[in-house]
Structure formats: structure tokens, C-alpha cells
Amino acid sequence: PKRYLKAFKDLIACVRAMDADVLTVTNATTIKSTEYGDVYPMASKLRGYCVIIDNEKFKVKTLERRTGTTADASRLSSVFEQLFFRVKLYENKTADKMKTLLANIAADKALVKHDALVVIILSHGAEEGIYGTDGVTVALKTILEMFNNENCPQLIDKPKMFFTNACRGSYVSTRSMFKGSWFGQELATCLAESAHREHLNDLVTILVAKRVSERIGKIDGQFSKQAIETHIRGSVKKVYFNPGLYLEN
């Protein structure tokens, strides 16, 4: 019966969340200097919001359940909490609800006191954008524009980091039923192990990309390619998370 199948799938989801690697973020010893203007300030006790949209179950038959995504959301939530971000986790949202909740975040007056913003979207995707649970896409451009200087002046001159882990076009997002996606695993691991000494651009473009590429190299098939998209909005300054350290206001 369908109700037993649903109960079994929900049980598996709980096991996946529990099975997510427990990562401890390595603390920095000093706060990276902003004296020369090439490093973003990142020393508030509350760095900002980390918004995670995790779409696992879809209402259209053409989009299968994203098994393993619960582990990604759990792992990334833990890491960003340790980096002093306030995590806002939203699960299984339609396209309209995704846009609404992001617009509400962009309008939040508290952002003016924050150092940064992180947005992570875990879902299916297509060339047109990222799928809501109703099978309707939201263009990545639309999401980025919500947080530009005109629509979100509270974050002017502050880093806005967007991570999407969604299959796009002919590529697939490689995901383990229990451990989550390769990108989710490696992003969380690299942040935990190296954010105390490396800036974000090097973390993502060198460390994370290298680890994911090594995994890809072990798979046969031309479509075995992890779909990774990272967008950092702001200037060309470096983003150091300075884990474990903050300055009293």
C-alpha cells in the first residue's frame, strides 16, 4: 500500500539525516585584516543569515524524489551555524513560495547589521532555472536580482553568496542516497577543514572543485558531471569566514 511506501521513504530520510557526517569547523587564530581594503569585514557575533531551500519531494511525476538531500541540508546547516550564521531552513517549496520567502529575506531590515548573506538552493534544475516542488522553474537571474543594490540596499558592499546544487540541462547532480550530493559533502567538508585559512573563492574553485573532479574521474560516462554553480555578489574582495572569532559590538 502507498501509505507503507511513504512511511518507509520518510524513515529512510530520517536515517540519511542522522547519517550525515558530523563536521567540526576548525577555528581561526586571527581575524583576517581589512586594513588594505581587499578583505570583507567578517567579525560580527552574528555573521548573517544562511538561507537553505531544500526541495526533496515534487508534485509532478517527471521530477523524482531527491534522495539524499536531507543529509546535505543537515550537514551544511551545522557548518554554517558553527561559522556564526543563523540558518533558515525551508523544505519543499513551490516556485512562488521560493520567490516569496527570498523576497521577504531581501526586505529584512536586520540585514543592515549583518556582515554577509548565504543562500543555498538544493533542488532539481533545468536550463531555465531551478524547480520548485510544483514543477515550475525560478530563473537564477531572478533570484540574484532580488538581492541587488536596488532591491536589497541593506547589503550594499557586503558579500552575498549563492550556492545551487541542481541538475542543469544534460548534466546530472551526483547524489548518494545516504550521504547527499558530492558538492554538498565537499563544500561542507572544505569549509570545516579550511575556512580558518582559505578565502571562499579558493575554497570553492580549487579545493571543492578538485575533490569533486577526483570523484567524477572514477565514473564512466560523458554525462557523469556534477552540476555546481556558485555566485558571489559584491566587489572583488576576499571572503574569509574567520571561524570561532568575533568582535564585541
UniProtKB/TrEMBL annotation:
Domain (Caspase family p10) ranges: 151-243
Keywords (A to Z) from UniProt: Apoptosis, Hydrolase, Protease
Molecular function terms from GO: cysteine-type endopeptidase activity
Alphabetized Pfam families for the sequence: Peptidase_C14
Domain Caspase family p20 intervals: 46-171
Presence of keyword Hydrolase: yes
Cross-referenced SUPFAM superfamilies: Caspase-like (SSF52129)
Any GO BP: proteolysis
Domain of life: Eukaryota
Family statement drawn from the similarity comment of this UniProt entry: Belongs to the peptidase C14A family.
Protein name, as recorded: Uncharacterized protein
Lineage: Eukaryota, Metazoa, Ecdysozoa, Arthropoda, Chelicerata
